[in-house]
């Protein structure tokens, strides 16, 4: 969540998300028009691009050098691409191709997957746990989990009754979140076992299309956005353990009675009662537009980032202690000249309590550079982990000639 890539009718653009006030454009290319997929390997110079002009062809570039590393063509349109430091995954409607990112060799083809018209799939960004998740059925919410390192099927998870709409791994690849096409319930499973850990209710009044599902880098929060104006942020904690003792009031007594009663109810009913509501929310001033969200730490504070299909980036403050309504602090235009648009609430919002800022600063303290030489905060591996150079063989993808494995900070 340290950079943003967007495809446009004229090409693609890459931005760095290291500052709230200023949006830095890292690269712009107008060589290929109508780009609808552009994936960047963390903060490195490797980008993968697919355009409507050639929707069956994947182009891999070293954008700093302005050179094409390679290109591959497939039997049908490319619907999505996912990558980490070991694997590059290409998802078609009824097949998935897994490449070795060191030399782009095709390692595995998963044929005859259930019809996947949206190209829904998720790949763990942690290369040590290169798990791949994709729909195991077109009629129900089964998740197929595949080990991208051993190239073997890991397990199948019966996640929802209806077809899947969203999948997301946490940064370590130990948790997987999912939502169905109804969009009312979001579940989190342990990986690779597939046990259900959490269940969150986004809402009961109406069905929505979940367009974005993402964990925070520390796996404490899970964000879900849809085609409605509300973004929900859930906190992954055991509320029964973290809540203070209820005061001896009638409501507290009834709450304990209600909690005890769930132990005697069928699992489906008690599960519904134990679902957690959103910890924090955002009400966007737009509705019906596709958007992508990210939970990131920028300038030592937790932020919610929302990018919309009309070409805007919204940055909100997230209070990790009290939650509530997130405050919009900046709005950037991604398609214009790079000028930012101030939010009127910016001057009206009350100053943040010192304790909150101090707490957040302690939580997001970055290890010293001596433990992470040349390593950027892009979540490619656990912070403090130095990736040995011998893991990356020389070949067509020669990014390590610029010490970009680990990637350099932009």
From TrEMBL:
Residues 363-383 are annotated as: Disordered. Residues 363-373 have a biased composition (Polar residues). It is found in: Preautophagosomal structure membrane. It is a peripheral membrane protein. GO terms for biological process: protein localization to phagophore assembly site; response to stress. GO terms for cellular component: phagophore assembly site membrane. One of its GO terms (molecular function) is phosphatidylinositol-3-phosphate binding. Keywords: Autophagy, Lipid-binding, Membrane, Repeat, WD repeat. Transmembrane segments: none annotated. PANTHER family: WD-REPEAT PROTEIN INTERACTING WITH PHOSPHOINOSIDES WIPI -RELATED (PTHR11227). Belongs to the WD repeat PROPPIN family. This is WIPI1 protein. It comes from Nycticryphes semicollaris. The lineage of its organism: Eukaryota, Metazoa, Chordata, Craniata, Vertebrata.
